[in-house]
């Protein structure tokens, strides 16, 4: 059994390749900075963080968090964006008073309805 481990300089992806037996099979699993996995079939799609839809979801996250937590956050930008089936995983930047912070968020989308499922500071 042979295993190789690669860590790219931007720390976005970690690749693990495993060869099982001399002629049996080879599998590659990629783990993103978010701790999620994708396989060779593209289970998670990396999105353009400047896409107007991603910006709209980022603003939605801040608006929802304000309602739930009486927070004073102001949306600044989407830093990273991934899409899985029915959910978005984003890193957003928001200002809390005078301090800019990053947050990892998960938003589920069913049709036109969005639900904020996770919100944590990174």
Brief synopsis:
With 122 residues, the chain is mostly beta strands. The chain has 1 helix and 9 strands, in the order E-E-E-E-E-H-E-E-E-E.
Question: Care to describe what's here?
Answer:
By secondary structure, this protein is mainly beta. It has one helix spanning 52-69; strands spanning 2-7, 13-20, 25-32, 37-38, 45-46, 73-84, 87-96, 99-110, 113-121. The chain has two domains: 2-43; 52-121, Nuclear Transport Factor 2, Chain: A, CATH 3.10.450.10. Strand 2 (13-20) and strand 3 (25-32) form a beta hairpin. The termini are far apart.
Radius of gyration, in Å, reads: 17 Å
* Name of the level-1 CATH class of the largest domain: Alpha Beta
Strand content: over 45%
β-strand number? 9
Number of domains: 2
Alpha carbon gap, first and last residue: 36 Å
Please bin the fraction of helical residues.
Answer: 10-25%
What overall geometry do the principal axes of the alpha carbons give? globular
Mean residue pLDDT = 77
- Return the CATH architecture of the largest domain: Roll
CATH fold description of the largest domain: Nuclear Transport Factor 2, Chain: A
Order of helices and strands: EEEEEHEEEE
Oligomer: single chain
What spatial order of strands do you see in the largest sheet? 5-6-7-8-9
Organism: Fraxinus pennsylvanica
Protein name: Cystatin domain-containing protein
Domain Cystatin: 48-121
Keywords: Protease inhibitor, Thiol protease inhibitor
């Amino acid at each position: 059994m042979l295993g190789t481990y690669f860590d790219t300089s931007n720390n976005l992806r970690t690749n693990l390749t495993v060869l099982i037996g001399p002629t049996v099979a080879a599998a590659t699993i990629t783990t993103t900075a978010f701790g999620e996995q994708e396989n060779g079939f593209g289970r998670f799609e990396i999105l353009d963080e400047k896409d107007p839809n991603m910006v709209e979801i980022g603003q939605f996250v801040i608006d929802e968090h304000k309602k739930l937590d009486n927070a004073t956050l102001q949306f600044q930008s989407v830093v990273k964006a991934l899409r899985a089936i029915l959910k978005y995983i984003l890193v957003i930047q928001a200002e809390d008073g005078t301090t800019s912070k990053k947050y990892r968020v998960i938003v589920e989308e069913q049709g036109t309805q969005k639900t904020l499922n996770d919100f944590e500071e990174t």
